[in-house]
Amino acid sequence: MRWDIAQLIENTDPDWITSKLEEMVESANGLARKYRGKINDLDAKGLLALLEARDDFSLKYEGVTEYTSLKYSADSTDAVSKRLNEAVKKSGTKAGQALAFMEIELGVLLKVKPGLVTDPVLHEYRHFLERIVRRIPHVMTEELEKLTMSKDQNGVSAWSQLQGDWLGTRTFKITIDGVEKTMPYGEIISLYQSPDRELRKEANRVVYDGLGRDDQLWASAIRSICGDHLQMCEWRKYEAPITQSLIDNDVEQAAINALMRTMEESVGAYHRYLRLKAKLMGLEKLGNWDIVAPLPGVPEKKYTWEESRKEVVSAYRSFDPEWAGWVDEMYERRHVDAEVRNGKRSGAFCASWLSGKSAWVLQSFNGQMGDVYTQAHELGHAVHAYLGSRHQKPSNYEIGSCIAETASVFGELLLTDKLLAEAKTKEESRTILATVLDEFGMAAYQVSARVFFEQGVYEAIKEGKFLDGETVSDLWTEGRDKIYGDAVDWLPEMKWEWTMKPHYYIPNYRFYNYPYVYAQLFVFALYRLYKEQGRAFVPKMKTLLAAGSSRSPTELAEDIGFDVTSEDFWRKGIQQFEAFVDQLEAAIDC
Ligand SMILES: [Zn+2]
Q1: Ligand 1 geometric centre to CA of 478 (Å)
Q2: What's the pLDDT band for 440 if we cut at 50, 70, 90?
Q3: What 3-state class would DSSP assign to 171?
Q4: How confident is the model over 462-483, as pLDDT tens digits?
Q5: 142, 271, 445, 464: which sits with the fewest CB atoms below 10 Å from its CB?
């Protein structure tokens, strides 16, 4: 299936699109002329008019910007797509710059008139304004903000560039079937998934040995990046190294503490799964090179496009007919691009189409079970967009990482139960369960190890430790061992694993990992509650998704009766994980 993105705009003529983009920049400039320097004088009604104008602006030009970027994702080799993509990027930057004053001036206004946040006239924008208020104390003067931007560009950002260049230009030597091969990083890492166990192990050894040889470089980078962050925390008056991330993700420390404690206390459940997986692979114990390896000797089941559509729609139908209707509409209106083509962006995504009260999904469908899962996942994002766009303004549909995967992973779990019910053999059930359990293991448990590592790094700095390569590696293995204990054998070279995680090198990406743990465990907890409460849970899930970003993640849970600062809530997610492990155990012949 190929999507029909022409629905996004009245006219697909490239000249018309370019003129529309120019009009967008002019319209942004118009808003700037109207409001720049005047926000300070606004009362509640005036502020409402401004916020509505801002939302109308983004709805008005959503179609044209979305059309051009989707067209480029669908074929990046097409000359017109390329030209339009450049044009949309340029005009997007121009419009963004023209409107950048708004947030700063809104901050000033709310500082002087904090009562506006709770003014009934502005009730729809309450949380949007609350988020600005939370950021206000940490904004510096305009001059200092500009200075920070320019020092970052040539300073701390260079580490991320260097790391990317290193990974992009180094080659690794590895012997395959007696022949020595030289491979770039991007190619050798695909061997981690090889069915040949020794090859997986050797690929890991070769890569991390190579990375570890430059440990001085990586340690310098980590010291500078953390040092820069701590200095900026002082300038911006953040209480702790994690504060900025908490504000960005709209969450509270208490919730993250409860979440991470739950992860740490529940590692036994993960160890149990890892031992079962070892058994399925005929091993005493897994090596780190086996953790996400495919189960051996499983014949892969193939799905046709029609079969996949049927499975996905009926998985959603088992939860709610309205959801299934929206998912089916995505196919019916050709909002899904699944054809495998040259020039098409790899991977998959779902783009919300708020003005059309719908969404667009791109993937490359090869008929594997993983593709059916991807489809269920992306269409879950679409369901979120259907609900959000029917209930919220664009300002209230800026979904943060902690919540963004709620509908998508929920859809994957619905599909899992559907496929398990239809599985004809124990092998089939095991493959389905291992897929889900591996994914949770990586997204929740393995990512938790990275959270512990980053916490450890800042504690070490506080204690005055010098972070050389070996010290950073010790912190890495400490975090890792908290999660894996003795359930897995690690190659000694794996102590250098921290060196290749790009996000540790990107400025303003500190404490990037816990939202992923949050997202994963949150959905598993919700799914558990659905299993416990049955149909009564359906409207709660809809309320949660329909709220978009008009409520914080904590409030979203509160609205449907749960407390994310309590471990009791998070343990529900672990119970769901354990239920799948139980099912896997039952599918193993002893
Ligand atoms: Zn997703």
Answers
A1: 30
A2: very high
A3: strand
A4: 999 999 999 999 999 999 999 9
A5: 464
